[in-house]
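Contributing new complexes? Match this layout with pyridoxal-5'-phosphate.
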Amino acid sequence: MGIQISHRAKAIKPSPTLMVSSLAKQMKAEGIDVINFGVGEPDFNTPEVIKDAARKAIDDNFTRYTNTAGIIELRETISAKLKRDNNLDCDPNDILVSPGAKASIVFVLMTVCDPRDEVLIPSPYWVSYTSQVEMVDAFPVLLPTTMSSNFKINAKQLEEAIISLSSPKALILNSPNNPTGSVYTKKELEEIAKVCMKYNILIISDEIYEKLIYDGEEHVSIASISNEVCEHTILINGVSKAYAMTGWRLGYAAGPSKIIKCAGRIQSHTTSCVNSITQKASIAALNEGEESIKAMRSEFEKRRNFLVGELNKIPNIKCCIPKGAFYAMPNVSYYLQNNKIGIKDSIELCEYLLKKFKVAVVPGAAFGAEGFIRFSYATGMGNIKKGLQRFEKGLKESISR
Ligand SMILES: Cc1ncc(COP(=O)(O)O)c(C=O)c1O
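Output block (do not edit by hand):
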């Protein structure tokens, strides 16, 4: 009969974004010329100044276990960053450095959620949130949004959802957002925060795309709204996206001592500290990486303008202008409804585009956004141009047979 898999493990679905990426990579390895719009990481190299700091850490034999929460020098650097960029006063002891923001979120959810607690998640959402909530035996509650509201929730909708629940515990807010690229304004955040305070809801604010924001927009951390909101917020951030450091694995959670301390205990029995070399490299990133961010951001903005402009020229495709991150999410429902080849949903459309036209995009279904697909523009302009031609050809053929 064999060993039974736990109900928890059975409930976890494989990440569809990674599935698309790995199939595209596999096709590439087989010599097939695939244009990959599925990637969730910057296509730039980690800046030299950061790599130098890592080399020095190795040469200095800085290779042992550190404090679980991260070396104090790093936590002081993060605390200074939170003051500088987000106008937050955060004691270094109220910061937990984890192996990636992904891990930070899981440790925080493990700390605050009891079985059957409810965690509110605006939809479309980053693929991992729902699985992470399920992993701690809590329930994800999706708050649907539409293109007309730029995929943002509003306070009224949030309040109505909270009232209808039996054990609402937390809201996971992600601005700038993956997959929609939407960015909440200060006023919108104030209204959302007010509702969370009224019902004692913890805000888990995932700000990992903070530095990738366009059109001169400003990132506002919801924690900076007031001391009361700060005490109800766990801010999540990291170095992956801002400094092209996805493989180095460092994220952090900052917020109320009580939560951070318990999350640290959980981390101490699971992953322990973050790689010691990465910690030193991240100090350099946070102190000296600003110049490289500017160059990356300006390149991303150029690509975004081109990609979204071209997408909106394709007949019956509509795409909002994403204000941040490096994703665009066009509405493809016309092609789902009118194709002549039996494609019924975004997953089948993406399979068709990948297999027949060698262009990899992620189905909106992965993000709770059926009718849409996600493009990542973390790929060079040449690829974007070529990939768009293939995409348009694929769509055209799907309705013409
Ligand atoms: C919204 C969001 N949060 C968190 C992460 C994870 O970041 P990290 O590499 O720090 O684990 C990602 C990565 O794709 C993301 O898109």
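Reviewers usually confirm one structural detail per submission. For this one: The radius of gyration is 21 Å.
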